[in-house]
Amino acid sequence: MRRVVCPGSFDPVTNGHIDIIGRTARQYDEVVAAVLTNVHKKGLFTVEEKVAMLRECTADLDNVRVAQFNGLLVDFCRENGISAIIRSLRSVSDFDYELQIAQMNYRLSGVETLFMTANPQYSFLSSSLVREIAQYGGDVSSLVTPNVEQRLRDKYA
Ligand code: ADP
């Protein structure tokens, strides 16, 4: 059983995230999409809302489970029998940061980090840009799923 994790803030989940989770689900037996609970970083959405949105967006993927975690990702991996962390690279600017975290996580626990290149269709896309566009009433319908679009509308109403 090869179980991996796609960790992130998912504030909110975008079509870029869904692309990565879906592609990962085709490569591994089980994928845990794990929402980081960061007490120092207050997101737009609560963890419960982020988890709910992710569940809605991945409902058609049988081998994807949604969870939340706080503390160290390597501890979450150990506790859940997860052998690898999947992260995505959108551009070279992602690389420096991701390399450092990946090497630190390996040093801490021996857990591997595997990188997947972003779909070029979504490489410009980030949750922060989606929030900014939605805040000013812009059209995000091609960037997120309809349920997420509705929740953004409710938030900024
Ligand atoms: P974090 O704060 O941990 O970077 P994010 O929710 O921003 O959390 O991202 C979670 C993961 O999803 C990361 O590996 C990130 O590179 C990836 N990701 C984010 N946006 C996209 C996108 N548009 N296309 C592909 N992968 C993405």
Automatic annotation (TrEMBL):
<dbReference type="InterPro" id="IPR001980">
    <property type="entry name" value="PPAT"/>
</dbReference>
<dbReference type="GO" id="GO:0004595">
    <property type="term" value="F:pantetheine-phosphate adenylyltransferase activity"/>
</dbReference>
<feature type="binding site">
    <location>
        <position position="17"/>
    </location>
    <ligand>
        <name>ATP</name>
    </ligand>
</feature>
<keyword id="KW-0963">Cytoplasm</keyword>
<feature type="binding site">
    <location>
        <begin position="9"/>
        <end position="10"/>
    </location>
    <ligand>
        <name>ATP</name>
    </ligand>
</feature>
<dbReference type="Pfam" id="PF01467">
    <property type="entry name" value="CTP_transf_like"/>
</dbReference>
<feature type="binding site">
    <location>
        <position position="87"/>
    </location>
    <ligand>
        <name>substrate</name>
    </ligand>
</feature>
<feature type="binding site">
    <location>
        <position position="98"/>
    </location>
    <ligand>
        <name>ATP</name>
    </ligand>
</feature>
<dbReference type="GO" id="GO:0015937">
    <property type="term" value="P:coenzyme A biosynthetic process"/>
</dbReference>
<keyword id="KW-0173">Coenzyme A biosynthesis</keyword>
<feature type="binding site">
    <location>
        <position position="9"/>
    </location>
    <ligand>
        <name>substrate</name>
    </ligand>
</feature>
<protein>
    <recommendedName>
        <fullName>Phosphopantetheine adenylyltransferase</fullName>
        <ecNumber>2.7.7.3</ecNumber>
    </recommendedName>
</protein>
<feature type="binding site">
    <location>
        <position position="73"/>
    </location>
    <ligand>
        <name>substrate</name>
    </ligand>
</feature>
<feature type="binding site">
    <location>
        <position position="41"/>
    </location>
    <ligand>
        <name>substrate</name>
    </ligand>
</feature>
<comment type="pathway">
    <text>Cofactor biosynthesis; coenzyme A biosynthesis; CoA from (R)-pantothenate: step 4/5.</text>
</comment>
<feature type="domain" description="Cytidyltransferase-like">
    <location>
        <begin position="5"/>
        <end position="132"/>
    </location>
</feature>
<feature type="site" description="Transition state stabilizer">
    <location>
        <position position="17"/>
    </location>
</feature>
<keyword id="KW-0547">Nucleotide-binding</keyword>
<dbReference type="GO" id="GO:0005737">
    <property type="term" value="C:cytoplasm"/>
</dbReference>
<comment type="function">
    <text>Reversibly transfers an adenylyl group from ATP to 4'-phosphopantetheine, yielding dephospho-CoA (dPCoA) and pyrophosphate.</text>
</comment>
<dbReference type="InterPro" id="IPR004821">
    <property type="entry name" value="Cyt_trans-like"/>
</dbReference>
<dbReference type="GO" id="GO:0005524">
    <property type="term" value="F:ATP binding"/>
</dbReference>
<keyword id="KW-0808">Transferase</keyword>
<keyword id="KW-0548">Nucleotidyltransferase</keyword>
<keyword id="KW-0460">Magnesium</keyword>
<feature type="binding site">
    <location>
        <begin position="122"/>
        <end position="128"/>
    </location>
    <ligand>
        <name>ATP</name>
    </ligand>
</feature>
<keyword id="KW-0067">ATP-binding</keyword>
<comment type="similarity">
    <text>Belongs to the bacterial CoaD family.</text>
</comment>
<dbReference type="InterPro" id="IPR014729">
    <property type="entry name" value="Rossmann-like_a/b/a_fold"/>
</dbReference>
<comment type="subunit">
    <text>Homohexamer.</text>
</comment>
